[in-house]
Amino acid sequence: MPPSDPTQAPSVSQAPGATAQALSPAQVRYALWLLLIIYTLNFLDRQIVNILAGPIKAEFNLSNTQMGLLTGLAFAFVYTVLGIPIARYADRFSSNRIGIIAAALAVWSLFTALCGLAQNFTQLLLARVGVGVGEAGCTPPAHSLIADTAPPEKRASALAFYSMGVPIGTFFAFAFGGWIAQALDWRWAFLMVGLPGVLLAVLAWFTMKEPRKLGMVAPPRPDAQVMSFGASLKALGSIRSYWYASFGAAVLAFIGYGQIAFLGIFYGEVHTTPLAQIGLALAVVVGVGGALGTYAGGQIADAAAKKDTRAYFSVPAIAMIASTPLFFAAMMMPSGPSGLSGGLSDPTLWSLALLFIPIFLNSLWYGPVYASIQGVVGPELRASAVAIMLFVVNMIGLGFGPTLLGMLADALSNWRLEALLAAGKDFNSTCLPIFADNRLVAAGQAAQGLAAANPDLAAACGLARDDGLRWGLIVSGLIGLLAVALFWLGRGSIREDLARASAAA
């Protein structure tokens, strides 16, 4: 096994006066692999709604704004708010972070299955809130566990290994979600991916080892004086690089979550690609591209940080600069024959191929940023620091990314339709109320409902819908320049903050 393998047994800091029972290399590998599988399921259950967005939108007659709420804010609000008290509990009282993770896994898996039983938008929205309640208990204690077992020089690789659950989970969400929905129904997709998580929760509870119970690190003492939440915020407030990392990651999450929420709709409506083919194509592009980028980001950062720790911020900044024009090019490719049937000359295929590169580049940040967070804080703040960061990242990124992008797409569609109607003498206002009331019809409904009565008007409605979504996605990519600025500013303080945390430890 190569020395850079993050699943190797690390050196550990034994708690004072404790008799440490170190994890074996096999136990370390098992723990990291099981955490990766849990996090994969976390994102599988979180992201599957994105590939199912088309049939859900058509069945419940929803707007892009409502879809943004469903995929973003409804989940993100409880996910981010609950993450902080759960992390505080893990830092202050819990000697069994594995128990927290297992219980959270069981809860979010059951609510994912309940999504498949929803009969209207409100029921589905409430079930998604339940998924957020469960998933709030996963990442903060998981990061704390990993930081207790991985030495500092391998921390970025270990956290990047865990973070590969994001693209891998997204891969399975798109691949299996689209296939199941087309073969059976979108409700079956929720049921089939949700229920296995309950069994995995039982496996994690009984088979994983807690370093605090083994004496590898000091367990929390409820009777000891610990930082209040206000004191924790104050301590973090003096660490400038922490906030540059948090808000830089939030901007990237805003772009990533917003775009992924609508890529399935984009290739279905604009490029008229069948759902199963969309799922498989985006599984490869988003899943494989994201997994490779996440893994590469950890390896690159660990290697570069040996010479200059500012690499934790340089890597995501440079990657964002390189990815932006390629994403624009992918979105601007014209529609090809329906169903990716044009072979190598199909512009839809080229759009997906171009998209692979920015997805890869924009996934490089996970390992470097999370490693910088764990490096600039002490052990007593690790889970809380991650939870507060995730509050910022997910409220801005997951909460508002899909929601605001949906609102932007609807607004641009309205504007585009009004311009088309004003330019055409024979157009009437038949489909204008559809856009004005934010009840955009799906492509099939537009063709069936309007084409017979007024083909020109039906074409205008479809063009306005397509252009609104296309330009909404393109405009969202420009926000990445703000992340570049934040990461570049963070380079000025990261070395000082890491040195101070190391000296204190």
Shape: globular
As residue ranges, the low-confidence spans are 9-20, 425-451
Rg over C-alpha atoms, rounded to the nearest angstrom: 23 Å
**Helix count, per DSSP?**
23
Describe this protein's structure.
The structure is a single chain. The chain is an all-alpha fold and 505 residues long. It is built from 23 helices and no strands. α4 packs antiparallel against α5 and α4 (97-115) packs antiparallel against α9 (186-194).
Which keywords apply here?
mainly alpha, 505 residues, 23 helices, globular, single chain
In short:
The protein has 23 helices and no strands. The chain is mostly helical and 505 residues long.
Write the layout of secondary structure elements.
Elements: H1 25-51, H2 53-60, H3 64-92, H4 97-115, H5 121-135, H6 139-149, H7 155-163, H8 165-183, H9 186-194, H10 196-207, H11 229-237, H12 240-270, H13 275-305, H14 311-332, H15 347-361, H16 366-376, H17 382-399, H18 401-423, H19 432-436, H20 443-450, H21 455-478, H22 480-490, H23 494-504
Helix pairs in contact: 1-4, 1-6, 1-7, 1-8, 1-9, 1-12, 3-5, 3-12, 3-17, 3-18, 4-5, 4-6, 4-9, 4-10, 6-17, 7-13, 7-16, 8-9, 8-13, 12-13, 12-16, 12-17, 12-18, 12-21, 12-22, 13-14, 13-15, 14-15, 14-16, 14-21, 14-22, 18-21, 20-21
